[in-house]
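Following up on my earlier message about uridine-diphosphate-N-acetylglucosamine. Here are the inputs again, as you asked, copied directly from the submission form:
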Amino acid sequence: MGKFMVKGMEGGLRGRVQISGAKNAALPILAACLLTEECCEIRNVPPLSDVRHMVTLLRELGAKVDFCEEEERVLVQAEAIGQTESREEAAQKMRASFLVAGALLGRCGQARLPLPGGCQIGSRPIDLHLKGFQAMGVKNKQEHGFVELSAKTLKGGEIYLDFPSVGATENVMLAATLAKGRTVIQNAAAEPEICDLADFLRELGADITGDGTDTITITGVKKLCGASHAVIPDRIEAGTFMAAAAITGGDILLENAREEHLKPVIAKLAECNVKTELTAEGLRVYRKGKLHPIQLKTMPYPGFPTDMQAQFMSLMTMAKGTSVITETVFENRFLHAGDLQRMGADIKIDSRSAVIEGVEEMTGAKVRATDLRAGAALILSALAAKGDTEISDIYHIERGYYQIDEKLRRLGADIRRESE
Ligand code: UD1
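Thanks, got it. Here's what our run produced:
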């Protein structure tokens, strides 16, 4: 297992950074490849451990998959589905593997998958996924840690999601694509990753409208073809580098970020006194004056993303004054606060809110990445802290950030990866 050794910086990050493809768009799109017997080429796929887990799972189900990591390209052909059951460890390791449920239901009318467990940031149930499937005529049975799904005829249905869950919206879209008739998802998630999945499904020949709004309509088709698709840039990786420029008082250019996906992050950075400028070459982010404190609430898109909450907490620890963060999406997503406190932060947690008093200085310490974005937040604080920080359990970070250490080094950071 690896760790990162980070030295606090004197000046800010400077230079250009290339943003990779979005992990959270690549995963459902790879699952969607199971819906067609023809060949799919997916480009701009980040070579991350989560993506490798999905590739392993697709192979277990009978798809031929060629992941050319250097070219960040995956070729998938699921000519036949060998089995609709996964025992694979990969399916247990990663919640997003449950997305193959929708694709298997669409293609074969059945699936048997390990129940995804809770994780550090919350219990993460799948009731909304199952509610959606049920409206499409799917029966489910849960025993021995598995969920068994089957439908005699998969038919379109009307689904109201109690919460605009990203995964449930994607799973229903996948199943509905080949179902009989029309499916309407109300209170659907509107994240850019949903639109990227819808774009890919349309390239395969699916009939989907309304993605990006709270009502998505899918009219089932008989068969899908193949396609070549490039995954959208990762807005959370982009936001993390923006926060890194902000916390170090740097000036960086994000080479292929999509400004329209980053509106809530840009708006909050502006309140923090961090400037962003869209130039012909990319999105420039810089800070000259002091960081200002803010009030922030995480919400489903287009609200402020929960996946950027930890990185903003790092920023807030160094803003002069009191900031308040309210986490409304996950019930237990302040795990990073303890480690930030070890580095000198003044943070009080009360249920779903965190009150942060800015401090003059953070200091390097030995800390541990407890989840993906918490780990990213620790790197940001380490860059702006005085002295050296050692971050362990970085496998969490590497699930979601491609070569984060190398990208930061190119921007002037002193960060080394060591094996533990
Ligand atoms: C996706 C993202 C993750 C992000 C999250 C919220 C991927 C692979 N992961 O996760 O990075 O943090 O969206 O933007 O795309 N819920 C239920 N019942 C369900 C499903 C969800 O109660 O059946 C709850 C969850 O416990 C959570 C909230 O809904 O509190 C949001 O979850 P959801 O939007 O489903 O997140 P994921 O799709 O798992």
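One observation from looking it over: The mean pLDDT is 95. Hope that helps, and feel free to reply on this thread.
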